[in-house]
Amino acid sequence: MSNLLTRRLALLAEDRHRDVLRGGLRGIERETLRVQPDGHLARTPHPAGWGSALTHPEITTDYAETLAEFITPAENDIATTLEKLDGIHRFAYSKLGDELLWSESMPCQLPPEQDIQIAWYGKSNLGMLKHVYRRGLALRYGKAMQCIAGIHYNYSLDERLWRLLAENEPAGKPLTPVAYQSEAYLSLIRNFRRNSWLLMYLFGTSPALNSSFLRGRPHKLETLSADTLYLPHATSLRMSDLGYQNDAQSGLSPHENSLDSYVATLTRAVNQPYEPYQKIGTRDANGEWQQLSTNVIQIENEYYSTIRPKRVIRTGERPIQALCNRGVQYIEVRCLDVDPFEPVGVSLTTGRFLDAFLLYCALEESPPISEEQGDILARNFARTVKEGRRPGLTLTRDGQEIALRAWGEDLIERIRPAAELLDALRGDTQHVDALAQQAPKLADPDRTPSAAVLRELARHGNSFAAFGLAQSEKHAAYFRAQPPTAEQEAHFSALARTSVAEQAELERTQTGSFDDYVKAYRASNLCPNHA
Length: 531
Known about the structure:
The protein has a single domain (3-530), classed as Creatine Kinase, Chain A, domain 2. The strands form three sheets. Strands 1, 2, 3, 4, 5, 9 and 10 form a seven-stranded antiparallel β-sheet that branches. β7 and β8 form a beta hairpin. The protein starts with a helix and ends in an 8-residue tail after the last helix. The chain is globular. 46% of the residues lie in helices and 10% in strands. It is α+β, with helices and mostly antiparallel strands. The protein has 19 helices and twelve strands. The mean pLDDT is 94. α6 packs parallel to α12 (371-387). It is an enzyme of class 6 (ligase).
């Protein structure tokens, strides 16, 4: 452990400071495809009983109309967050008819592109903006990409904790509390970049996919069966170069050495024309909007990243404006696969491990990352997602090759004091136990969930579609056997009614044309210092 980490852990362990560790928040966004009973993509619109996808705070859609997204409120304890996520699933299933929620990150058997519906949010200018943005994504990445699901983990530490650390740092350049907190979250993000390969090894669950996903594109996957492609040692094909990647974004590397450089990079990307997109134009031959702009990215959320600095946005505000105006409030971890063995897609053990991992990343020393170092970190991540279970696999650390297993075991030991501190607060051993459950995976790649997926595929005729459907049916039976309580039913039904009324009010009261709305949106200064 570094001296800084040791000193910070000791500070937080003092009785008078312990309370600041209780105050952070955890939220989960779980994406999941709606599918027919035969495992094929649903053709129906967003279920009316769920409410409005535009204005509902907890049940919406992501890219495709059939890609549901369940968003929990932020809670102090990940166990409470998962209870809330379970409640959303129970209610969702009670309004789903005979459809199922797909259990995997990679999509089910997909129909032709024209039969995949882009998410629809109604006729308000805001709703149309969200829809046209997704039309642009379909043009840029293809619709199959819009059917990939993941788990997003939102994490914050108490703002009092950052102030406490600032007061006890060696004298240096004085920063305002907002600036110190923002730079501290950027430090967390840099350490996440250094170590996130470990999450993909321990929790990746997408070593295979349905062959319909690739749409005939060239690839280097191996054939497992007539409908299934895979890589024998992969952990997460979702997070490989088969996912949300394209040439336009290839030059966008994370500039997370400071908030200023991060903001500047994204501001440049949303304002920089990209010739292939310019040739397509913002409108089709009939004058219909088909993308919001012809720039490298249409809006800042299009920048695909495994982790993002975030700030809750206000009405009419863009994400980067929120960061500029009020600093970083939390981080969003975006690389977790949906766990097909868990009804809600993620386990409590994974959550406890993540909390210890992220606290370690927040407290450990985190020097700036050079461009060359960034390339090495990206290569470590890419190696792990495509061949993480390969015997003897090495990664690059401090200019030397090191066995993945040895580095992983070393990291677990470095994270342990953070886990012990969290357990001391709770009076139990849940975080240390979560760490202990990872050791067998490092000792034996066959104990990883990605290996478990391949074993289950073998039991289902090596068919990704058959395995995915079987798990989806199992989870559906679980939720249908435990419908929402009367209290949950009343809560979510009220949210649904309110969301429908809010969308109707938006459509009734809006003024101005959509063209003017887009023009104003594009012209809004992302950040005064980086325009």
